[in-house]
Amino acid sequence: MQLPNFLVIGVAKAGTTSLYYYLKEHPHVHMSWLKEPRFFAYDETNPKHRAADAFPVRSMADYIALFNGVTTEKAVGEASPNYLHSRFAAHAIRTHIPDAKLIAILRNPIDKTISGYNMRVRVGNETHSWENILDGDEDILRSSLYYNHVKYYLDLFGKDRLKILLFDDLEKDAISVMRETYRYLEVDDTFRANASTRHNTGTIKKARGIQYFRLQYRKSLGMTRAAQSIV
Q: The domain that contains 44 carries what CATH number?
């Protein structure tokens, strides 16, 4: 039975897709063929989870099957960005793979929120304007607040078991970030991922009202320059 020994636990719209593929390129790393199994966040006692299509893997047998191709790879992992925001997932991970190494890649909360908003507009799931988003879309704002979630994982697993990466660093120097990540996973850190390829990229749309949005976001959430740094 093969279970992962590391997980990318977050966050969405912060480079997790690129991170997944860069990790997958390494000859000593095996990533699940399904990028976001979300298995540890699935609560079978939650009626909303049972009815949702957002949880493609719901049994341990199906989860283990994601890693059937493992041969001699030292690091075995998967990437499910919703884990960071789920305390249920945190405890499930600790129960089933207590020694797993965790990786979270974070993004400036404002830019992440804007990116998430733009994506929802593109797929037709967002009708609120920038000016009304604070009143009409609390979920997308809440998903960009990391402190409590990061602290929860740190308290549960310890600082040596959670590697924090930053989206801006990945964008500026992916080779260095991946070298650092490979070193954390104890695989050959001289391997160079094909960082010329960006995966699942999007731009921050310069819409009217964006400055208003940034100002109100800071006021409403009590954000300061120090609080935004997270780490």
A: 3.40.50.300
Whether the bond between 57 and the residue before it is cis, its omega within 30 degrees of 0, is no
What element of type H or E holds 61?
Answer: helix 60-65
The per-residue pLDDT for range 46-85, each reduced to its tens digit, is 998 988 788 999 999 999 999 999 999 999 999 999 999 9
Please tell me the pTM assigned to this model: 0.79
Residue 80 covered by a domain:
yes
- Note whether residue 1 is domain-resident: no
List b or e across 119-142, with b for residues whose CB sees 16 or more CB atoms inside 10 angstroms.
Answer: beeeeeebeeebeebbeebeebbe
The β-bridge relationship of strands 162-166 and 75-79 is unpaired
Range of the domain at 95: 6-228
Q: How many domains does the chain have?
A: 1
